[in-house]
Structures are given as C-alpha cells and as structure tokens.
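Structure tokens please, single chain.
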Amino acid sequence: MAKIGLNNFKYSILTEAEDGTTSYAGPKSLGKAIDCKVSIEKYSAELYADDSLAESDYTFKKGTISLTVDEDDDTVFAELLGHEVNAETGEMLRKDTDIAPYVGVGRILTKIVNGVYKYKVEFLPKVKFSEPSQEEQTKGDSIEFKTPTIEGTVNKLSSGIWSSSKTFNTKEEAVAFLNGMMSESSTK
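Here you go.
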C-alpha cells in the first residue's frame, strides 16, 4: 500500500450530550488539503515479573492534528476557533474570551493497493483547534508560497472512540461516506 494523495478536508461542529449521544451540524470544507499530521500520545505502563515483561498497557491519551490548507478563510477559521465575523463588515473579531468548539474532522487519503486506486476516509470525531501562529515574508528575488496551518487537540468521545476509518473503491463513495459521518444525525 502506498499513500499518494490527500484531499477533502472537512469539519463539522460536534454536540456531545451527557448520555453519550453525539450529533454534527453538517460537513463544511476546511480548505484545499496540503498537509496533515496526526500525532498520538499514549498512556504507557509496563509490569515486569520474573525478569521479563509480564503486562503492558499503551492506551490512547490524546493526540495532536496539524492541518495545512491553501486558504485561511476568515469564516472557516472563525468558526473553528470560536471567533465572530461581523455580518456588516466581514471583519473577524478575536476576543480573549472566545472558546473554540469541538468539531469532527475528516479527510480522504488516496492510495494504491496491488496496482489499484483506493480511497481511505480518516475521521477524528472530537477535535478542538487553537489559535495558529502567523508567519509572513516579503517578496524578494523569488516568490515563496506561505500557507496557513492550524493545530488542534484530538480527544475521545465519551464512548472511548477517538478515530475511525474505512476504505472505498471509488472517491465518490469515500466522499459520500465522509459527508454522511458529519451529517445532521445522532449516534451513540
């Protein structure tokens, strides 16, 4: 299996009720995908007995996701970070009291398996993004593209689920599945 592509960054606002029911507000595009990195932290415990490893536990603790997109659209970033966009002026206003919502985040990986294209949906059901760093540079002898990166913390749902994935034979099936995961529905 060789991963050869990344596309369809999607997000949806998550509502998680006390009874474990989750619902999403509907899929929205985060921008065109350039790069995605997911790093997972695990609890680690090892018990040695009789001079060897007798028991071990490496369970999910939390994760970090870093997404690079082609455009830092103010309406998208405002929603992901809990900011407000002034309806009259279109200006994004950042306040120190803003709280980013939990969102579901998904993407599609294009891969080749035994000479055949496959499309794998990767979905993180509970992510909270934080304010990105900003880096700009003046145009010099040559032009260098700078693209925005936003980072978030990957959490688990009350059910313990922190990630899901499924592979499809066509991109259309993968896109429909990803959009369906974030449609206005409730699950436990």
